[in-house]
Amino acid sequence: MKKLTLILILSVLLISAACSKSNDQTGNEPDGPADPIPEEIVDPGYENPFRSVVKFSTEFVLGYTLHNNSGNVYFYDMSYTLFRLENEEWEQVFSQDSGAALYSLNPGIIREYHVEWGDAVREQGDTAGHNSIPPGTYLFVRKVFINPNEIDEFEYLRIEFDVSAQNNMSSHNASLRQSYLDFVMSGISSGNIVLSGTVDVSRSGIAFSLENRSGTEYVYGEEWELAQYKDGHWQYVPPAGNDFDWISILNIIRNGGIQDYKIQWDQVFGKLPPGTYVWIREYSPSSEFPLPDRRYTKEYVIIDFYITENSPEVLDVTEAPRLYLELAEYRNVTDRGITVVLENVTEYDLLINAFIGSIIQDGSWLPEKEDYFWPDYDTWEWDVLPGNTRRSFNLDWSLSHGRLPPEQYDMFIVVFGIAPPPHPTGDFQEAFEITVNIRG
């Protein structure tokens, strides 16, 4: 699968966004400030209407995940009230009234939410507090509705969390990670993205394929986790060093597509000892990444595997890049363009689009015309190239560079393509360098 050239900066998860309407809104807008919270909501025995877990909590932001396992559709707006534990009593810190339309959380859906305290602090004119809250124990409360037309009938979502001082952040984060792992491993996968075929594993790597059966395109980042079943519960496998970080790249897996994964982990985790393990990665529908107001629909893919005394030390997880096309020949060179013949070397049909990527003369890149724009990927008309066949394509570089004077040029023929499901899919890109002589 081709990695998108779009690079997602990690801070996308923390950007400020207005509470705009999304395609799952009802159009109803609650009026007035938040009502006082009844005493029972601060009771530790209060049960939320659906499962929840805190993913991260700092003085600037709260990240929590909900799994609607209730069987009901719930609705909510972005209003909330925040309490702080003072002398064993909950005292209100502030209340954020969004005034926005209601959003829905359907049965079975897993969704992650990011709440930035600065939004409420700035709205209430608390310039001394800036964008943060101090260390302490807090209670986040939000109304949820079963009937969007009866906003006076509601239940409460209750999220209790801690904000730690800097010297306690390490143990604080470790505790949250363990709680989140317990949440993920509790059997909440919907089966939209599933294992296809077998798993090959060694002490230093793993190879498997996933199939997207969701009916829609999914996106995912480079990050993944390993966990080991140890001492009666699942535990994260910690990286061997402290200087490791993930590259922020967004990938896609198409509806109906099968994607191959070959992963080497020894440089991150070292060689694993014998035991029972899982590989975990988060996926999201591309149409919902992200939803407005810092909401992220989640899907968890979990691959079980075992390391034994007889497991090989190294798995050959390297392979030559998948080859789709070959440039069979080129001909009919003029000052305006060229004919190229492409061969599909696969057994299945490909959808492709070929064009002139760049032109070089005497080591210098020729500039494109000022009014020229590269083809719009979303509006391309794809050409079908059946498996094991050849087809000629007439490429006109006068559109991008004008007519070329007699000279020798180096050129890159760029081909974008798609291998439709159920074959190993995702967009691919191939480039062929040629040298042409334009005669007077």
What does this structure look like?
There is one protein chain. It is built from 4 helices and 26 strands. Strands 1, 2, 7, 12, 13, 14, 15, 17 and 18 form a 9-stranded antiparallel beta sheet that branches. Strands 21, 22, 23, 25 and 26 form a 5-stranded antiparallel beta sheet that branches. The chain folds into 3 domains: 145 residues, Immunoglobulin-like (Sandwich); 115 residues, Immunoglobulin-like (Sandwich), CATH 2.60.40; 114 residues, Immunoglobulin-like (Sandwich). The two termini are 43 Å apart. By secondary structure, it is mainly beta. The N terminus is likely disordered. The longest helix is centred in the middle third of the chain and has 16 residues. β25 and β26 form a beta hairpin.
Compact overview of the structure:
This protein has 440 residues and is mainly beta.
Helix/strand layout:
Elements lengths: L50 E7 L3 E7 L6 E3 L3 E7 L2 E8 L6 E3 L4 E7 H7 L12 E9 L10 E9 L5 H16 L8 E9 L3 E8 L5 E3 L4 E6 L2 E4 L14 E3 L4 E7 L1 H4 L5 E11 L9 E13 L17 E7 L5 E8 L5 E12 L2 E2 L17 E3 L4 E7 L1 H4 L5 E12 L8 E12 L2
Distance between the amino and carboxyl termini: 43 Å
Q: What is the CATH C level class of the largest domain, in words?
A: Mainly Beta
Radius of gyration: 27 Å
Query: Which class of secondary structure composition applies to the elements?
Result: mainly beta
Helix content: under 10%
**Which sheet architecture does the biggest sheet show?**
9 strands, antiparallel
Shape: elongated
- Output the number of helix runs: 4
The fraction of residues in strands falls at 35-45%
How many discrete structural domains?
3
CATH architecture of the largest domain: Sandwich
Here the CATH topology of the largest domain equals Immunoglobulin-like
Helix/strand order, N-terminal first: EEEEEEEHEEHEEEEEEEHEEEEEEEEHEE
On the 0 to 100 scale, the average pLDDT is 80
pLDDT below 50 for ≥5 consecutive residues: which ranges? 1-34, 125-130
- Strands, total number: 26
